[in-house]
Amino acid sequence: MSDTVAPTLPPGAAPSAEPVFYVPGEHHPQNGTLLGFWVYLMSDCLIFACLFATYGVLGRNYAAGPSGADLFDLPLVAVNTSLLLLSSITYGFAMLEMRRNRIGGTQLWLAVTGILGLGFLGLELYEFAHLIHQGAGPQRSAFLSSFFTLVGTHGLHVTFGIVWLVTMMIQVRMHGLIPENRRRLMCLSMFWHFLDLIWVGVFTFVYLMGVLP
User: Fold this and answer.
1) CA angle at 164 for the pair 118 and 162, rounded to the nearest 5°
2) Could you list the residue ranges that cross the membrane (predicted)?
3) Nearest to 47 by CA among 145, 150, 135, 129
4) Domains of the chain (ranges, CATH numbers)
5) What mean pLDDT do residues 180-207 have?
6) What is the value of pTM for the model shown?
7) Which tens digits make up the pLDDT trace of 81-90?
8) Per residue in 155-164, pLDDT tens?
């Protein structure tokens, strides 16, 4: 059955030369955005799977240079890991405030999450600068090339996440917790927790196993 509905003409009016179409219902399918975002996250999983596989193959090719045991500062990385995992908790608090329809509380916890994310990026950039200053840049060996690529790609995702978070804070301030903003905050929540999960893998596979003899 066609969705086209013929317009009702007043008595004595001439019919229009062009038909008028009416599309009933909502254009945006229910949960369509969340489903599409899950598909995106699965594609991102493939990217990181390739990077992890590359590091697994090249992670012991030191080219007579320093190894992870010589370079990695585990206490610093542990602090960095704590910042990112804590930011996942604070984002959860933001989602709870959103469900209670509290704009102020949502904005507060989003801001705390962004600050923790910036702290994570700051320590990661400090680590990169320190390694390069020691002459352990990505061009030094295959091990360092794969290390910088994997960790740097994750850091780039965190950067995009912070930009997205700031954008959402502006949107919530301007329009409140409308359904569209709630849906976008849900997508950002999945993205942020996904980054935490990837970092747990990086911390275990790269740093902890990297310091083993």
Assistant:
1) 5
2) 37-57, 77-96, 108-126, 146-170, 191-212
3) 150
4) 71-207 (1.20.120.80)
5) 96
6) 0.83
7) 999 999 999 9
8) 999 999 999 9
